[in-house]
Amino acid sequence: MKKDLTKSLFIFVVSFMSVGSLSTQNLDQVLQNQHYPVDFLGLDFSEFKFIGNAGVSGYTMKTQFFDEWNHMFYSENKYKYNIGAHIKIWKKTSRWSESKAKNWRMVATYSINHHTGFIADVNRSVDAKNIVLFNNYNLEDFSKDKLQEVINSYNLEFTSPIALTFIVNYFNWLTGESKIAAVFFNTNTKEILLSTSLTGEGTSRGNKNKFRNFWANSIAEILGKLEIVIRKKIGFRIN
């Protein structure tokens, strides 16, 4: 019975949203629907800069840490890095029982289509020699034209009409701050439906062994901020 209801809800949503006509209003409806899938690409490092000298080369970031930071969305997705838990806000309240919360997180995970292989290919194309900037450059937010240029470069057979990508602007070792543009877009037309630039602060600064977690913690903070942006946009109370 439950499976039939889920199937019916999905068919209903698909029936009133044609791929070519998805809009920001449709995006609101998608993010409020527990069953509607979103394609998640992950962390796109194609425009990434690392500011400062952390003792980690651009080559090591490209060949090791790009994959590790993307992998945490699967290996550590109980909540902290569970994309669905942060963007699917259909009935998240502060009075849930733990059993309901676990069930919701499971549904949220299933409503995300991960495209790890594609984003790994994108990140492998980055020139490692151009990643590290040793001075404290004041990098501005990506313009909408730049974000559109990145989105237009994606050559992937998407599985959902809506996709989310995180285009990484920079990690600043001198300030401990990261900046990432979260972009929802129509996978058929490549039109940007919602974009927001968010910053996060790393924690547990230390040696190379802690390098991964330092920036992973900043990404976790950005996910929390993205959830707040979405809740405000579609009028949900922030608990």
Write a compact overview of the structure shown.
Helices cover 43% and strands 19% of the residues. The protein is an alpha/beta fold.
Give a written overview of the molecule.
- Strands 1, 2, 3, 4, 5, 6 and 7 form a 7-stranded mixed sheet that branches.
- A hairpin with a 5-residue loop joins strand 6 and strand 7.
- The protein has one domain.
- The chain is built from 8 helices and 7 strands.
- It is of the alpha/beta class.
- The two termini are 32 Å apart.
- The longest helix is centred in the C-terminal third of the chain and has 26 residues, at 208-233.
- Helix 3 runs antiparallel to helix 6.
- Helix content is 43%, strand content 19%.
- Poorly predicted segments: 8-16
Strand content: 15-25%
Class derived from helix and strand content = alpha/beta
H/E element string? HHEEHHHEHEHEEEH
Number of domains: 1
Shape: globular
Radius of gyration: 18 Å
| Count of helix runs | 8
Q: Helix share of residues?
A: 40-55%
Give the N-to-C terminal Cα separation: 32 Å
**How many strand segments?**
7
Main sheet properties: 7 strands, mixed
What is the arithmetic mean of pLDDT?
85
